[in-house]
Amino acid sequence: MIDLHTHLLWDWDDGPDDRLQSLQMCRTASSDGITAICLTPHIFRMNRHGDDLGVLRERMVEFKREMALTGLEFHRGAEVFVHPEVVQAVEKYRFTIDETSYVFLEFPAEGVPAGARNVLAALLGKGFVPIISHPERNRGFAERPEILCEFVTMGCAAQVTAGSLTGEFGRETRQTAGLFLLHNLVHIIASDAHRPVGRAPVLSRGVAAAARIVGEPKARAMVTEVPRAILENKVLPDWGEPQNPLQRKTWTRRLFSRPKEPFVFKINR
Fold first, then answer.
1. Does the pLDDT of residue 254 top 60, yes or no?
2. Which of 10, 12, 51, 268 has the least C-beta neighbours within 10 A?
């Protein structure tokens, strides 16, 4: 299996504190059947060094050197927090997975900012493919899944967290994750691992939960075939067209569903 979204770098963001914790996480991943890991540290949010890319490069080099004996295949990327200058930042610094066109984007947990569609359209227009991180844990996408459907229809991909599928983030998040799976709105299962205990790099339980919803072949593809295509900068395999969950609501539920106020975010730097 391939874990495409992880926070395994020590002393960078809210992931492991030291090398020992990183090593413990690598061993856990290997024991779970994970053979390849992409390092996706936070950028523009929750890092300890003020987005100093020199420090980040040093951490990446140190990590790959010191974790080489684990036998895991490592790739480099980033989880880029969406802010007004994110398009220029991605274009300038190439925060993509390895040298591909794919880039993880993280929206504020409170909602989807007004103008998000324009940001995604701009990135797509420049040849990047945004991967929306854990939309099932975002209040905006959870309350208005049609927004996620629009973004995926535009050409974005999305990643669901393994722990969301197993209920580790609560019952509502689990239900939202299942809804997104059923309607082809998420393409990748990843651990989003942060710590050796509690947020460990484990995929197998999430895959098993997904298999009960969409079947074993698709669930397995979300940790093998699909992430491998991303690492090789290929078009994602077709596992179904995105569907708007609201189209299955009764007319009375649609009638009384009031639109939410757009969420406008501010970034503190």
1. no
2. 268
